Amino acid sequence: MKAKPIYGLMAEFESPEQILAAAQKTHDAGYKRIDAFTPIPVEGLAEAIGFDWTSLPIVVFLGGLFGGLSGFGMCYYANVISFPLDIGGKPLNSWPAWIPITFELTILGGALAATFGMLAMNGLPSPYHPVFNVQRFALASTDRFFLCIKARDKKFDAAQTRTFLETLQPHGVFEIED
Amino acid sequence: MDSESSHKVAVANGANEPDLIIQPGHTMATVTDKISSIVLTRPTTPGWVFGFLIGFSLLMVLNLVVTMLMVKGVGIWGINIPIGWGFAIVNFVWWIGIGHAGTLISAFLLLLHQKWRTSINRFAEAMTIFAVMCAGMFPLLHMGRPWLFFYLMPYPNPMWLWPQFRSPLVWDVFAVSTYFTVSLLFWFVGLIPDLATLRDRTTSRIKKIVYGVLSMGWRGSAVHWARYEFASVLLAGLATPLVVSVHTVVSYDFTIALVPGWHSTIFPPYFVAGAIYSGFAMVLTLAIPLRKFYHLEDLVTDRHLDIMAKVMLATGIIVAYSYVIETFMAFYSANPFDRYMMLDRFKGQYAPLFWMLVACNLVIPQALWWRKVRRNPVGLFMISLVINIGMWLERFVIIVVSLHRDFTPSIWAMYYPTRWDWATYVGTFGLFFTMFYLFIRFLPMISIVEVRSLVHETSSEQGHS
Lengths: 178, 465
Description:
B: Formate dehydrogenase/DMSO reductase fold; globular
């Protein structure tokens, strides 16, 4: 083991196409704990590094369902159970009048679930992350694309992995301090 | 997929340059630099300070008016029975309608893969949020005792009372507050990667901390992007029916009442079309000076103006159709009150306002049929102002003219706004422009990430062809 612990190795690329090909090769070479950092969303990149499913849509559905049910439930409870008022014999459960509130709260529940679900699943906010220790990583939010193989990967070996990354013809390979 | 890619090719190979939605020669780095430099390195110009001070002074006017209102009550306004709604509700409907274009651009056009929305959606969304803030103030102030606004919310109170959930006014509370929350969330989600860009590019330590905290440590991981895109599309899918529902609920405030001129089934679609009409007018009112003063003509191109003008033309025609149907139904219904209401609009005491409305909303915008007008920023700016005025007059006619001649002649009256009415209206412009000036100074007014993606797509398409 090295004296200074490292988080992983990072290779820099110049275009989405390059990093997509590189990510595929890295994944095919048997590396499992990899990540890619891009300034724009790159179609297929997440799949190339092994991301295949997210429960976000289910969370959003449940959020919307919860919002809608609580909206309708609130109106029902208020008008039928908590404070029933007989107005000319009109039905207490006047559900058509509660559709707007039910609808709005469905949307609200779904939107809150989408936003905060996405942030939570992504582990944000995260005040510190080792990748920011690489100086050139600042360009990951401008026009450079970075592929990272984490040291936690079973196949990771500082020297061999570096040689492997260099075969992908990156712009440069950097060590990430932990 | 096919139509999308052919659209991209059409964008990239545009028949002539003015038809491009982004001028050639841009790379990911240049657009990032261009947009972020407005916030990070561009010095604060005298023009900005001047504009901000005007906005801020008007905000202080609002401050004064609200204080006066709290001290003296709504009696300082021109409202009285039968015209209880006056300027407050006219302005509420006007402001909230303006907001609708922002959501339409950011959500609905995202679902439709309309690439041209990219460079205008951020500030259109900001416009939405600020407009909804202005709109939200009016019903609160109109209550007379705004400090008791929480009576509108269902909360456990010692009186054991609930809000009237069967009332459109309570629906409005839910619709508008949901609309504001969802718009804010959608806007913020869109801002996260851009805030990260600003964090990475700034050299000032304070800015680095502020943008760093706001961007929440966004690092552009591919897996994060995948979930982010999911969330964006889902938010867009939720916001699209929401925007339609909000102005529908606003129109219920009228249609569910029995007042002639209000009690009409055409109101929901008519209000939604009118909202989009006025909203696009406001987007143009803001976009044309912005792109001039910040030299963004290569990102907000003449083609954007052209498309927005076409949207205005289309929604304007829907609005015109609604006016015609409204008039037709008033006479066809054989209801004497409806007929009288319509005749009163045509030749009553407020008739000049009605005919001004017809000129502003129906006649003058027909100039947009000509391509030359749509491509002329100055002309378009004037027309957008005219439509803004016209849509304000429309709400005035609907609210005040309908109320001033009700069923019983003995309660007929005239409504004259007082200077406090005007000052409140002008004051909300102060709120709007103060927020907007701060926004263009401290946040990227164009989505950097989306423009970067657009640059990449267009350049790779050009590479293939």
